[in-house]
Design a protein that fits this description.
This protein is of the alpha/beta class. The chain has 2 domains: about 10-135 and about 290-305, Rossmann fold; about 135-285, 3-Layer(aba) Sandwich (Rossmann fold). It is built from 12 helices and 9 strands. The structure holds phosphoric acid mono(formamide)ester and norvaline (NVA). InterPro entries: Asp/Orn_carbamoyltranf_P-bd, Asp/Orn_carbamoylTrfase, Asp/Orn_carbamoylTrfase_sf, Asp_carbamoyltransf_Asp/Orn-bd, Orn/put_carbamltrans, OTCase_ArgI. It is found in: Cytoplasm.
Length: about 300
Amino acid sequence: TASTDIRHYLQFSDFNAAEYAYIFERAALIKKKFKAYEKHQPLVDRTLAMIFEKASTRTRVSFEAGMYQLGGSVVHLTTGDSQLGRAEPIEDSAKVISRMVDLVMIRTYEQTKIELFAEHSRVPVINGLTNEFHPCQILADIFTYIEHRGSIRGKTVAWVGDGNNMANTWLQASEILGFKVHLSTPSGYEVDQSVAGIRSADSYKVFRDPMQACAGADLVTTDVWTSMGYEAENEARKKAFADWCVDSEMMKAAKPDALFMHCLPAHRGEEVEAEVIDGPQSVVWDEAENRLHAQKALMEFLLLGKLV
Ligand code: CP
Ligand code: NVA
């Protein structure tokens, strides 16, 4: 049976500020060792199962390479080539898979699916993206912010675009780590505070005009107009989101040293202009690389706890 003292990482709110401080410190150390070609293998003989019900480049490569670098191994499953696609109950899959591996990462649709899996799992479960949340991405994003600018506490993050999994996760992070989110979404695509489950509206502010959301921001960030699973809405979204393209005017409205982030994959000319994402304020390649280092720290923490 599943144990209740297992730590999972299903949403950003699963860890507190002190735990994030520890993970960011470990990520920095792990990155430094990686750059120096120094081995860091605390997870020898441990196995990570990765279950993908949606496509991925960064999440797959960072978890797979990361687990090997930590000394462990991985098993990669997709809906199409496992019994998951043939309606084996999630509870049964969780019981079986978690008897064979030490850690599970899942990318799926509804958050309730990953919660059900975790409930029946003997080992920690990591959210590799759901319709509602993308905690591993925000973990890497905040680690990237800290590397470039220091603490994010008290800063302002402008979110321009869809009130999606990324936006929900930024909201959770703002409440835990003490920064503000300025949200601008087209009408009909607003963030639902109850999905993020945050207690108050103190850490965020809603703006109709994306320029206003960017005014004075320390970080401007956006995401695709159409997330995975919402492809049928693509045409309607293209119309609704036309004014929510991060351009150099928006970057000028932000602080002069503001950073630009995007979780990728990006669509130049849709949610962001090429001159912004390929410009001097963009840190998107560091952000993508940091998935590797941040998630290695995450896996180490989930399996070994605090080491110091
Ligand atoms: N940002 C992100 O999660 O990318 P992938 O979909 O390529 O994993
Ligand atoms: N919001 C996007 C993020 C992709 C990494 C999606 O869910 O498809």
